[in-house]
Specification:
The complex is a heterodimer. By secondary structure, chain A is of the alpha/beta class. Chain A has helices at 32-38, 49-61, 80-88, 92-101, 103-109, 126-132, 152-173, 216-232, 241-256, 261-275, 308-315, 334-349, 369-385, 392-400, 408-436, 438-471, 479-486, 490-495, 505-531; strands at 2-3, 7-10, 15-18, 41-44, 68-72, 110-114, 138-141, 176-180, 191-193, 281-286, 288-290, 320-322, 331-333, 356-359, 404-406, 474-476. In chain A, α7 links the parallel β7 and β8 (176-180). In chain A, α2 (49-61) packs parallel to α4 and α11 (308-315) packs across α13. By secondary structure, chain B is α/β, with parallel strands linked by helices. Chain B contains ten helices and eight strands. In chain B, the strands form two sheets. Chain B has a six-stranded parallel beta sheet, with helices on both faces. A two-stranded antiparallel sheet of chain B has the order 4-5. In chain B, α1 packs antiparallel against α2, α2 runs antiparallel to α3 (57-66) and α5 (80-88) crosses α7. Chain B is globular. Classes of the chains: A alpha/beta, B alpha/beta. At the A-B interface, β1, α13 and α19 of A face α4, α5, α7, β3 and β4 of B. β1 (2-3) of chain A pairs parallel with β3 (132-136) of chain B, so a sheet runs across the interface.
Chain lengths: 532, 236
């Protein structure tokens, strides 16, 4: 469906403008087409959300590509190669592209190697390394664990030790490195975050207390000691080891000023790369990665650590949202991240790269949080108006009451009120049970328990997102990626472009993102919840 | 040479109009008080609009779009799916979808040419799977509607001009193309193509259609007859 008009929407000013957009012009200092047709890329983490889109984009846009090596981890009985052809290529973002270009073409161009970041040299076998030595020009690493607060070892192993294995591999291959991290390694900070802040020795609280320094080596010493102690005291301490490891990681991260274990370990990974002498590298830091805007099709999503839980909660009718009135949410569609990674890879291959690239939207085209809160309410209206199941009164409430921007204090007050109310209902039902017997009351008690569980789950999700929505307000500067895009050739720019300015947030959020989440995430989410 | 089928929307494929759609947004303002206030305003403006429509369709459009002044675009876009479900979908004529499918199957490119606004048209166009849309757009300043429509305002002669432009750009033979409309305001558009069809015509259009020997089509109830040039579709 096309719309014919002489007007086009300028998302930044919020006005329609006349005339066709000027075709993008580049200086041609970097040629992505040349880079991808003559050089070999080794892709790590192609099975992930971003990884699949990067793979799809490179296969779709660059027919000149000669050779690509993809590392895939073995999964139980499924070998890496089997997994690549049955799982990755058959996934929704790749299926239609593979059908168009043909699987035999992929077999010709793409070599699959089995490996695992947890092992030395990323688990790639010795004879395969011999074959790849000197043949691989750049390693693009998209692998990592994106859970915000797992037990600390489950985050340190892939994100810190995994990076050590990666560096080892890259040096042995004599290649360059593009490492994907996260913009939130900045930690608990406010305002604009520069790309020029030195990486090694960084911690968010730097400068707050004199004489405090951060070093990865010391952290790893603490880590080994902590994990050992926690495991040794298994017998004497009643709390489960996993839970203690989880808390320990979060506490340590917060002590240095990071928001969670994930950003803390990711930052350590970056620092290890920055410490390595003679390594030619670029670190790509995307903000919150969201549903695709256009490629491979609008609304593709499979990320669980994105804003999906929030959108689902909005759809379920949560009304009070603790967000900053003046803050943007740093989200960026996955296809734009993929294009950004390919641009950076081309820059690295041409030797014209900077060290750090933020991939985020607010620098050019911010979406303010109150606008998003309003969208969440409108989605709830749409969903609950015609809902047949559930309590009728609750559905009317969920459909017609508008969402509100509230403060954390009033959120706490609301929660306390709600729980007091539920306590009263619970007491009344227990009394009813003794008076009228279990048969009548149990039904209501059960539904009360379900409601409570649901509310608790929502509270936990909301608390996880508070650092991004309320406590801190970031704008990640994106000067470097814009500069790299300007250096591409005109032919490249027709295929890959960095253009957050073109995002019409209303259309994206309502017609693309929300629908993508409802279609791709809600079924999986519901299935995982019923398993618990 | 390609051929196209040009469709009007209000009254042709569904029985909704600009006032109904605005009334929806008025009912769904940000709070109950605001909704009541806005809805009262709509009710009071109905007689004026009714009179204006008899006099000139363009003036009617201009006046009814004025009512959007001050509304945020996020809200207009955000509620458009609900608007479709509540107001538009139930009012789609029984045979409308079949007609649109028929012209597509016969190799016509389906183009929706309507005075309705872009965000309202979107779900309708998706429902009917239109290939292209030509529609009106509101003017916005910093995401807030000013109450004006971006020129050119699509109505009457402007519709005919826009389909001629479209045909010239896309290499479409207008003599082989068809157009469907219910209103005498669209006579210029109907006259521009080789196969005009008066669809659910108003009394005035019915008279014109009879004078010009145009086929008349009723989509409001099932089992109506297709005009002769589309009769090949019966075999489908």
């Amino acid at each position: 469906m096309k719309s014919r008009t002489t007007w086009r929407w300028n998302a930044v000013t919020g006005e329609f403008e006349r005339g066709d957009p000027k075709p993008p012009q580049g200086t041609g200092e970097i040629s992505a087409i040349d880079a991808f047709s003559n050089k070999t890329i080794l892709l790590l983490g192609a099975t992930g959300f971003v990884g699949k889109v990067v793979l799809a984009m490179i296969l779709d846009r660059f027919a000149e590509l000669k050779h690509l090596v993809v590392q895939v981890r073995r999964k139980k009985a499924l070998s890496g190669e089997q997994r690549f052809y049955s799982e990755v290529l058959q996934s929704p973002p790749l299926r239609s592209i593979i059908n168009r270009i043909g699987e035999n073409v992929v077999r010709e161009k793409v070599q699959v190697v089995e490996g695992d970041l947890d092992q030395a040299l990323c688990g790639i076998s010795a004879d395969q390394i011999d074959r790849l030595k000197g043949a691989v020009d750049v390693v693009v690493n998209l692998a990592g664990v994106v859970d915000f607060d797992p037990p600390v070892n489950e985050s340190v192993d892939p994100n810190v030790y995994g990076t050590l294995h990666l560096i080892e591999l890259v040096r042995l291959l004599g290649a360059r490195l593009v490492h994907v991290s996260t913009a939130y390694v900045a930690g608990k900070r406010d305002g604009r975050v520069s790309e020029d802040t030195p990486i090694d020795g960084y911690f968010p609280r730097k400068g707050e207390r004199d004489g405090e320094t951060f070093s990865v080596a010391d952290e790893l010493k603490w880590y080994t000691q902590f994990v050992k102690e926690t495991r040794e005291t298994r017998a004497t301490n009643p709390r489960p080891v996993r839970e203690r490891l989880r808390d320990g990681g979060m506490k340590r991260a917060e002590q240095w000023g990071w928001t969670n274990t994930y950003t803390y370990t990711k930052s350590m990974g970056e620092q290890l790369i920055a410490q390595t002498r003679g390594l030619s590298y670029a670190i790509v830091r995307p903000a919150i990665v969201e549903s695709s805007l256009r490629f491979p099709f609008p609304g593709w999503n499979e990320g669980f650590t994105t804003s999906a839980p929030l959108v689902l909660m909005g759809g379920e009718g949560v009304k009070g949202w603790p967000v900053r009135k003046d803050g943007p949410l740093e989200i960026i569609p996955v296809d734009m991240v993929a294009a950004g990674i390919l641009i950076v890879t081309a820059a690295v291959l041409c030797g014209k790269n900077k060290q750090v690239y933020h991939l985020a939207s607010a620098d050019e085209n911010p979406i303010m949080l109150p606008r998003l809160v309003a969208f969440l309410g409108m989605n709830a209206r749409y969903k609950h108006k015609r809902k047949k199941s559930g309590n009728k009164l609750a559905n009317v409430w969920k459909a017609y009451v508008e969402t509100q921007v509230i403060t954390v204090e009033s959120l706490q007050a609301r929660r306390a009120r709600l729980h007091r109310g539920l306590d009263v209902i619970h007491a009344a039902l227990t009394l009813g049970k003794t008076l009228f017997g279990a048969r009548r009351a149990d039904r209501y008690l059960k539904s009360l328990r379900d409601t409570r569980r649901q509310i608790r789950a929502q509270e936990i999700t909301l608390d996880k997102f508070l650092p991004f929505m309320f406590h801190n307000s970031f704008v990640f500067e994106t000067r470097n990626i814009r500069e790299a895009t300007r250096m591409l050739t005109n032919e490249d720019l027709k295929r890959i472009n960095w253009e957050p300015k073109s995002i019409d947030w209303a259309d994206y959020w309502v017609n693309v993102h929300t629908k993508g989440i409802e279609k791709w995430i809600r079924p999986v989410f519901a299935a995982s919840r019923s398993r618990d | 040479m390609n051929k196209a089928a040009f469709y009007d929307l209000d009254g042709t494929l569904l029985s909704c109009n600009l006032v109904n759609m605005h009334a929806y947004y008025a009912r769904n303002d940000r709070s109950l008080v605001k909704s009541v206030y806005q809805f009262t305003k709509v009710l009071l403006s109905v007689p004026v609009l009714f009179g204006l429509d008899l006099y000139s369709r363009s003036l009617f459009n201009v006046f009814s779009f004025r009512a959007y002044r001050g509304m945020h675009r996020d809200r207009l876009v955000g509620l458009s799916d609900d608007l479709f479900e509540v107001t538009l979908k139930p009012s789609i004529f029984a045979e409308a979808k079949r007609l649109v499918d028929t012209t597509r199957n016969l190799g016509y490119r389906n183009v929706l040419v309507t005075g309705t606004l872009d965000f309202q048209v979107r779900p309708i166009a998706l429902h009917f799977e239109f290939d292209e849309i030509i529609c009106n757009r509101l003017e916005f300043k910093n995401h807030v509607a000013t109450g004006r429509v971006l020129p050119p305002l699509l109505a009457e002669n402007e519709k005919a001009r826009s389909i001629r432009d479209y045909a010239a750009q896309e290499g479409i033979d207008l003599r082989e193309s068809c157009a469907f409309s219910d209103s005498s305001a669209d006579v210029p558009m109907l006259s521009a193509v080789g196969h005009p069809v008066a669809t659910n015509p108003t009394r005035r259009l019915r008279r014109i259609a009879v004078e010009n020997n145009w086929p008349i089509l009723e989509l409001r109830e099932t089992g109506s007859n297709l005009p002769p040039f589309l009769s090949a579709a019966k075999a489908l």
